[in-house]
Specification:
The chain is an alpha+beta fold. It is 42% helix and 15% strand. It contains nine helices and eleven strands. The strands form four sheets. A five-stranded mixed beta sheet has the order 5-4-3-8-9, with helices on both faces. It has a two-stranded antiparallel sheet with strand order 1-2. The chain has a two-stranded antiparallel sheet with strand order 6-7.
Length: 285
């Protein structure tokens, strides 16, 4: 019982730490918006299911070698992630979410499927891509992942052509020197056709697993709604929410925090309460 209670307490404390992090992030002041709303409203995925990705697009791999994108076609389903390696928030959340989900499915990177990350920033270098790849491969931890993770950089022409083909709408803000972009994964068939989109920063293990299996069989899924970005008014440039939603999230975070603290206090009181020892009957002589 004590071990179980201790584990529950640790889990609750971890949950509180996460809520505290969320609360302080939400409580921080949002930076001023530098791109107009009309531009930000266009930051999204245009779902282009069944589109064949050009195999002739040239990028550079993490060893600074020119590579045709088609080199990765014809073998396994692919998870394609567009972003940039020095992104201050959203790209890291997307890749962290993908790694966490990929760690919870039977299929492995480098064995049943590959991952391709492509920087939308033409000034980023292969050495930076290599460093990010090492970090995520180490975090993932499964053998063979390094051979199945392809971290690419390229020139502006190739980047824009790929983004157009997959429907990835983004914009560059010179004032902040950041890119506004949507969040999600693109699942490709082994031949390089778009099979599924997974939106957001947290992904269902079942959805990722099913999408990869269907893509491996050259099945193309159906369009899905981008409810996460639309309903919560997420600003992909600042990594913040709109003021009205921000206020609601702060209230929810505070309420959740108070509820968790109350539960921890109850458990602490129970642990301090002495457990009555059973009385033993006198031994007959």
């Amino acid at each position: 019982m004590r071990a179980s209670t201790s584990i529950n307490s640790v889990n609750l404390i971890n949950s509180i730490n996460l809520i505290l992090l969320l609360f302080f992030v939400l409580a921080s002041s949002a930076p001023s918006q530098t791109l107009p709303d009309t531009t930000l409203s266009q930051i999204r995925f245009d779902q282009k299911l069944n589109t064949q990705i050009s195999s002739d697009l040239i990028f550079r791999d993490d060893q600074n070698r020119p590579i045709r994108l088609g080199k990765y076609f014809g073998r396994k389903p692919l998870v394609l992630v567009l972003g940039y390696y020095e992104c201050p928030m959203l790209c890291t959340l997307v890749l962290n979410g993908m790694i966490q989900t990929a760690s919870n499915i039977p299929w492995s990177i480098g064995r049943e499927f590959d991952v391709i990350t492509v920087s939308i920033n033409p000034s980023e270098t292969p050495s930076l891509a290599a460093a990010k790849k090492r970090t995520y491969v180490r975090t993932y931890g499964r053998p063979g992942a390094a051979n199945g993770w392809h971290a690419l950089t390229g020139d502006d022409t190739a980047i824009r052509e790929l983004a157009e083909q997959v429907g990835f709408r983004y914009a560059y803000d010179p004032a902040s020197k950041q890119f506004a972009h949507p969040s999600g994964l693109i699942i490709l068939t082994p031949e390089g056709k778009i099979s599924h989109y997974l939106f957001g920063i947290n992904f269902s293990s079942q959805e990722l697993s099913d999408s990869l299996r269907q893509a491996s069989a050259n099945h193309v899924g159906s369009p899905i709604k981008q409810l996460f970005l639309l309903c919560f008014h997420y600003n992909p440039l600042t990594g913040k929410y709109s003021p009205a939603i921000l206020f609601m999230l702060r209230l929810l975070a505070a309420a959740t925090l108070l509820a968790l603290l109350s539960l921890v206090l109850k458990i602490a009181r129970r642990q301090k309460t002495p457990i009555p020892q059973p009385t033993q009957a006198p031994i007959a002589m």
